[in-house]
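Try it yourself: sequence plus 5-O-phosphono-beta-D-ribofuranosylamine, in.
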Amino acid sequence: MTARHRVVVFASGRGSNFAALIEAQRRGELPIDIVALLSDKPAAPALALARAAGVEAVALSPREYASREDFDRAIFARAAQFAPDLIVLAGYMRIIDPAVVERWRGRMINIHPSLLPKYPGLHTHARAIQSGDAEHGASVHFVTPELDGGPVIAQVRLPIFASDTAESLARRLLSLEHRLLVAATRLVASGEIALDDNRVVRNGKPLAATLHLGADGELG
Ligand code: GRF
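Structure, out:
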């Protein structure tokens, strides 16, 4: 029986993706130990969710650091104190210093609300609607120094309706994100999915195509 992966989650806001991980762990559907929630926003609601779940919640304020790099080094050094096997960025709204990212290469994933490589960065739902796309979605990828640019592990897709606003689309996508993040985290934590150089491998073999979340909640 391999030891359960120790996972540290980073969040800057609401924390619904974090909550989805906690719930999956609690239901026995995600064999990991979420050992801490870190945030760059001392008032982030995610911190209260963590405390309610009995997970250590740590917030560092960027204002207390001389530079962005100093803050990034400090919050990731704090994360390292929990000896994580995996870091999950779940609504962590900071661009992280490349040197810090490199230290966690292959051990850090992020969920981003677009069908990468389309729409890295912000306002993805509005951009998809404005572009007239027929569908939108979310991606879980390994984090590399390029913003939202790391190798994609898995995606979920949903149709864009003519009546959609950025808000309605984001709301419909969010519940799918939760299932995507749980499924992708499970595969990475088990070691089935890993980063080899700059490619996603599954059981040691290059992943032929990005995994997709099916209606059954499975990745295939
Ligand atoms: C999610 O849509 C995630 O994809 C994006 O920010 C949002 C975070 O939501 N990066 P929450 O804090 O997990 O509820």
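One thing you can check immediately is this: The longest strand covers residues 32-39.
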